[in-house]
## 1
Amino acid sequence: MKTNARAVIIGGGAIGVSVAYHLAKYGWKDVVLVEKHELTSGSTWMAAGNVSFYHPSFYCTQVNMKSIEIFKQLEKETGQPSGWHTTGSIRTADNPGRMDELGYYYSMNRCLGLDVSFVTPKEMGELHPLMNTDGLLGGLYWPDDGDVDPNSMTQAMAKGARKYGAELNLHTMVTGIEQKKSDEWIVKTDKGDITCEYVVNAAGLWAPEVSKMVGIEIPSIAIAHTHILYETINAVEKRDTMLPLVRDPDKSVYLRQEMDSLILGMYEANGQQWKKSGVPWDYAQEELNPDIDNIAECIEAGMERFPVLGDTGFKHVTAGPITYTPNGDPLVGPAAPLRNFFQACGYSFGITQAGGIGHYLAGWIMNGEPEIDLWHVDSRRFGSHANWAYNHEKIADIYPRLYSTFFPNEFRDAARPNRTSPIYEYQKKANAVFGDYYGWECPNYFPPEGEDLYETPSWRRSNAFKHVGNECRHAMNKVGIIDLTRFAKTRISGEGAKAWLNNMTCQKVPEKDGQIALSPMLDHNGNFKSDMTITRVNEEEFFCVTASVGKKHDQHWMLTNLPTDGSVLMDDLTYKMGCLVLVGPDSRKVLEKIVYGDVGKDTFKFSTSQEIYVGRAKCRINRMNYVGELGFEIFHPIEQQISIYNSLMEAGKEFDIKLIGMHAMDSMRLEKGYLAWKSEMNVHHTPLETNVAWTVKLDKDDFIGKQGVKKRKEEGIPLKLVCLVVEATDSDPWGYNPILKDGERIGMTSSGGYGHRVEKSIALGYVSPEFAKAGTKMDVEILGRARSAEVVTMPLYDPENEKMKS
Ligand SMILES: Cc1cc2nc3c(=O)[nH]c(=O)nc-3n(C[C@H](O)[C@H](O)[C@H](O)COP(=O)(O)OP(=O)(O)OC[C@H]3O[C@@H](n4cnc5c(N)ncnc54)[C@H](O)[C@@H]3O)c2cc1C
């Protein structure tokens, strides 16, 4: 076994082998994989092997697409069959909400150029003659989906990995991991140590234990999953073409052909966690005892949809452990707060993604940035709140609902409330309907007394619509408070702080105390890394605010770029400071009543910051906001939030002050054309394509991403961000809607919604520059149906920013 390597991959399941294969294939010679048993010894060996394009996320769908491409060509490349079969797949719907969901997938998939079509119950019956289509409204059909033999596919990639020079060590167990001062890792195994630059944790069921070796707790727990292989079925045996995979999400079952029979899989109501406190090291290739009583309901449901199952005996019942995370998606990418340690675990659909994620993660490790935006699976999307106990509660909720309809406005109750602002109880008393953002309880809206305190999940305008409209109009005409305590806040200080920040952002760091600058951080290619606002406190101190859900991601990026000589210090202030945002034309009048200081138009100018006493609390107030009204972001000591809140509410009584939620904020930011992180701002776009191109200061000294942006500018900006007004009456664009011109796709929306102040349905999206002129007519496809749209000048609301600057 090698004692030195560029990368060590821990785990020889489908995922680890794929990462090793791709790293070696793309040119890294010293790639070493260590597997404590035989290859595929965790979940991989007993998987059903269903592989489909379907995934709720646009980018994960691309990972699946890459997998299928890889599985299809593995045999040609390695000489070893992967066991791939193209069978096609159907996803059914038996209710209108599900049909809407399928409409979303249809439109999103068309953005990717996938072959997908709506099918009627009759057509589904023709595609799968053993299916009883009673009660179905329709479905989607992907002709290019299929299944793969998990063991053959892993062995084929292992063969490929060896062919390209990787070393795969079986029966070698990792027992400890240390990092040297030089950043090199020492991976300790029972066969000796390996010194390396990069470590990849692909230890599947044992990934939490491997993470603990480097001091990280990851939210991943094993659940017993069952599928049943039936005895030979004549009607299947007689066929000369393969039956398509069918997923009936409303019955929580899937069914696919296996040789001359069928496999029925299920997500039962009472998912059973296995080895809750950690999978024993000596577990390998062992089936669990199936609990037939627990899955009886799903077996019945399977027989209803496929009556032939009622006449056929079980050949084998397979129950095995799968890892689950709090939202069912895996944990991939750089592990915060470490350097050069990557996660590739937490997979519940790791066969489907094995090929694709190996490709994309290898690229991420080798180039420092992912080729496509992988935030959806990024391990840093879970904050420190996502601990073992949280995960335990979340998974009990998520597993039985894996096939439930996905709605963009649904927030499940499990493991909540978790993180709360001190004024949480006050928000509750004001009828808040909460959402859960990065573990924080944040009010989405506040219905009046007597109204339903639950937002009905829907792809269409929900029961929240009219209340959100009232809040937007209130912010426009009077005054409101938005709680943004969850903002990620970081203090950067020290003699090197200014120069360092200037290197971290494309914007010029403010030169005057109290100045604020919108300061995106870019990646090495010049694409958006983070949405940051910098306030200069003094020459050596800066107050940086970034998106709440990006906290771990953004702070990890800053930390790994921090100089080691102590000239720059970084403090996380997120949990020490709250943020209440006062917005609306009367906001100054309210503030004036309770501050010790001057907040007048001429003394406290737009886009500046001051330290002011609000009542008894010393606060930092930034004169800006995300909704486009006169407004003040009041950052305050968290322990004084209730006192500040009460002062604001008392002072605001005469102005009819009201609380305003996240839905209204999102609606208003669309009207202002303000970008949202991971919607408009992701790894596919430079600021040059957007309305914040002015933040890129190419005339300043070097900054991360400068060469990338310059190159992009020289090559010609490929896309332009536009604002579209859409003729929609019941369902507004959400993002990932195709933008069409004469039926041809010319772009895609990045986000959308209804703008209550301008009374229009709005989408933001990227199109080819020739279509970006105001007045250009096009279509936006929503839930599978094209609606007329027109490019308008951005922003739609208060284009001169007169309100904000008033
Ligand atoms: C019954 C069942 C049906 C399934 N059906 C499907 C399906 O149809 N489609 C789909 O996409 N997915 C399916 N899955 C899920 C899929 O099997 C997993 O997501 C996937 O196999 C995960 O692969 P992995 O490489 O991450 O982990 P694993 O397969 O668990 O591999 C991890 C490996 O790491 C090794 N290891 C752990 N710790 C150490 C250490 N300290 N030192 C050295 N080696 C170590 C282990 O021995 C193991 O071989 C199914 C799973 C089950 C159980």
Note: The chain is about 25% helix and 30% strand.
## 2
Amino acid sequence: MLRTLLLSALLSIVLLAILTTVDAGQIVNDITQINPIEVDRIVVPKSVTEVRELVQSYRGPISIGGGHFSMGGQTASEHTLHLDMRGLNHVLSFSPEKKTITVEAGITWHMIQETIDPYNLSLKIMQSYSNFTVGGSLSVNAHGRYVGQGPLIGSVKSMKVVLASGELVEASATQRPELFFGCIGGYGGLGVIVEATLDLADNVKMKQIVEHMPVTAYKKYFADKIKSSKTAIFHNADLYPPDYDRLVAITWVETDAPVTIPDRLMPIRNHKWLNQLGYYWLTEVPFGRQLRERVADPIRLHGDVVVWRNFEASRDVSILEPRTRDRSTYVLQEYFVPVQQFDEFVAKMSKIFVRHDANIMNVSIRHAGPDRGSLMDWAREEDFAFVIYYKQGTNEHEKALVGVWTRELIDAALSVGGSYYLPYQLHATEKQFHLAYPRAREFFSLKRQVDPGNKFRNKLWDKYYQQPETKE
Ligand SMILES: Cc1cc2nc3c(=O)[nH]c(=O)nc-3n(C[C@H](O)[C@H](O)[C@H](O)COP(=O)(O)OP(=O)(O)OC[C@H]3O[C@@H](n4cnc5c(N)ncnc54)[C@H](O)[C@@H]3O)c2cc1C
């Protein structure tokens, strides 16, 4: 009897090791390549049972990663067991009639699109690119360019989470709501999201409308033409560096016109030299930016384009990838500003960019409705989001310089009642973090209840959770 027990225990330990260990590397990094973090081991669980066994049996801290597109160490911490969730990537159930889908958390938006596109359905809310995982997107409470929609939480019916105890719980707005509103936007701090049920929308044809204008005209343009539109689906405006006084507004409106691009989805592939050349030109060539409005954009945005919603929603981030990230890298930041404070923030932001000679490639402006109540919500009211794409050096000196202007931008957003986004570099002071996320202490108190041993860690929570929260 004892022999059989011992043998089966030994067998399950060996099995666990064989099933889960796939990566011999010990470094977890993100797309920017400037945040290498040495972890104890990387595992790719293939089932919820495996996740539960790992969480229960591993004595040390655990970190969680999806696509690893967050840019400040949010996916790892030193000496953790790193769960790479991309092995949990299946569709579990799909109801075209109810327009809902239940998926494992490591699946990417693009994989879901491949399943739902033949039924002419589309994701209700997601980011601008399709490479992100559902778990990673829920954990940052992502948003896209959707007109009239707020953050991703607005499309989540329910989800399943593995807690630090190994317990598997279901959470929705009505069932274990504290976990639902804590885990969405919770950056893996409360548990491992293993499944989610999401609302879908119709995949319709959309026509692109392009309008150029001075930045001072945009707030009224958005209120009059876009917000009230019954047909606008996607909208964003690109603010032109280096003067930040003009922008191009791009809106995709529903149409019955025939598509001009018949493809249903964009392929995920490596886009090479043409895009790299374009970004090099923007960031390195004198007057490269000035030529964008007059030369590059008229070519890029030319003609009457009609596409499927899924086509526009299935963009591949590799289109942005530089030839190398050794000496410099492309990075994102994002600020949320109440709609009424648009002009004031643009003026403050532009001054900071100019004063610090920041190498800004683009500022994409989007609109977001308020959050449904997540603890770490970044949109407490109707906001404009400013997504800043820039180039920086990879050495410590350059990182420190970026830290200076980032903190100034955070102050600028806070000064107009706004906030900043957490998936990017961790430059914010603790005070700025708490001002931007006033319910963080509620989140920390929930973490102490469901994860008393601080099992789930990463650089974001190491920085803001470990310190005494009362200190201001
Ligand atoms: C080019 C680019 C464009 C972007 N565009 C947008 C945009 O339009 N809108 C927007 O909102 N954001 C945008 N982002 C940010 C992006 O949405 C986030 O970085 C998102 O987290 C990426 O998903 P991921 O799968 O890579 O998550 P990861 O970076 O792998 O993880 C993000 C966080 O989620 C946690 N996590 C991951 N999986 C799980 C899980 N299963 N359970 C619990 N915790 C988990 C991780 O620990 C980490 O804290 C963009 C980023 C890039 C690089």
Note: The mean pLDDT is 91.
